[in-house]
Amino acid sequence: METKLLRIAELARSYPEMQFTSLAHLLDEASLKQCHQELPDNKATGIMGVTKEEYGEELNNNVENLVRRMKKKSYRPQPARRTYIDKAGSKKKRPLGIPEHEDKIVQRGLAKILTSIYESDFLDCSFGFRPKRNCHDALKILNVYIERRRTNYIVDVDIKGFFDNVDHKWMMAFLEHRIKDPSILRLIARFLKAGYMEETKLYKESSGTPQGGVVSPILANIYLHYVLDLWFERKVRKECKGQAYLVRYADDFVCCFQYQQDAYKFFEGLKQRLAKFNLEVAEDKTNIISFGRFAEKKCRQNGNRKPSTFNFLGFTHYCGQSRKGKFRVKRKTDNKKMRAKLRQTKIWLKENRTKGAEFIMDKIRRSLIGYYNYYGITDNSPAVDLFRDNIRTLLFKWLNRRSQKKSFTWEKFVLFLKKFPLPRPTVKVSIYQLRDHINYIL
């Protein structure tokens, strides 16, 4: 399958108007077995409760039966199991749809096919859930646009309930630009219409693609590629009097403008553009702010102390200065994200405080390393140090509640940390160290 996908990717790149008519044969037994192996272990199960390990016990028979049903057009995805997770900085819950393992296998195969076709179509402004691109790359290119280009205004936009409001008819229309294989289109349509189960009740919807599905990220990228990226590149930038740039990661995006009138014109046009595709802007979370090398001067003229800030990908971006006194964009961890992570750690410690010290400290150590790998970027060391200090305080509090008798004094706790040391944060990512594909964009 990999060789065939490379050939499809080559054709898609060489012939941007080409439509693919024969793709379903790629979902054969060998490729679906490979998709099964690639799926992560110990993940939450769907409504039938079948795990990867259980499905793999009769893998040959299960996949053979799956392929047979797909060829007979009788395969229908099960509804996703609806669950909810905490939303950072809010009392609201974020809905997730967890598919059955067999459906995850098919979605994995579909995601590979769609990625091979659309990766060459996607514009350079898109970074979310794409090969060899990540959140740090999006932050790096945004930093270049603000520091090295003529950015004076930022439009920080939030799309209201994007994954719940993806229009199925528009989604299928976008896919038909490149795909003419009815079997593949039928499969995707069935996944979109499968609905979800919540408290034994089935819900069918005519819009939305559930977060949590393996194929959802690539479908979201395709939808916003046509709704937002192409529109911004082919219409908005051409009509702007000054420079304009877009940086998008999944449904989160930030736009940079040279002139204020271009920023406001874009925002009004964006509301109309999204409404056409049954989406809307969350106006309470959307801001147009003065930001850049002249923002501080404008701020003083308007009688304000400091320029406004904006949040993107878990970081608060603010105007700062280098050691030489020149303008620099700086970043620190978004307070909402930090509080949410600390709250999550507190709950885990409360529930697991009676377990062995080695188990608890190994979990905390791995959690901290993961946190450092993402938030350990240029200028964010003070915020990461603060997070580590808060984790240490939580440990002291909850390890002292393992019984009615107090377990530690602070002096004993310090000795405990010498035996089980917390990893120290370091700068893992330099915002100014650009990767090859970012240099290509610039």
Automatic annotation (TrEMBL):
<dbReference type="Pfam" id="PF08388">
    <property type="entry name" value="GIIM"/>
</dbReference>
<protein>
    <submittedName>
        <fullName>Group II intron reverse transcriptase/maturase</fullName>
        <ecNumber>2.7.7.49</ecNumber>
    </submittedName>
</protein>
<keyword id="KW-0695">RNA-directed DNA polymerase</keyword>
<dbReference type="InterPro" id="IPR043502">
    <property type="entry name" value="DNA/RNA_pol_sf"/>
</dbReference>
<dbReference type="InterPro" id="IPR000477">
    <property type="entry name" value="RT_dom"/>
</dbReference>
<keyword id="KW-0808">Transferase</keyword>
<dbReference type="GO" id="GO:0003964">
    <property type="term" value="F:RNA-directed DNA polymerase activity"/>
</dbReference>
<dbReference type="InterPro" id="IPR030931">
    <property type="entry name" value="Group_II_RT_mat"/>
</dbReference>
<dbReference type="InterPro" id="IPR051083">
    <property type="entry name" value="GrpII_Intron_Splice-Mob/Def"/>
</dbReference>
<feature type="domain" description="Reverse transcriptase">
    <location>
        <begin position="66"/>
        <end position="317"/>
    </location>
</feature>
<dbReference type="InterPro" id="IPR013597">
    <property type="entry name" value="Mat_intron_G2"/>
</dbReference>
<dbReference type="Pfam" id="PF00078">
    <property type="entry name" value="RVT_1"/>
</dbReference>
<keyword id="KW-0548">Nucleotidyltransferase</keyword>
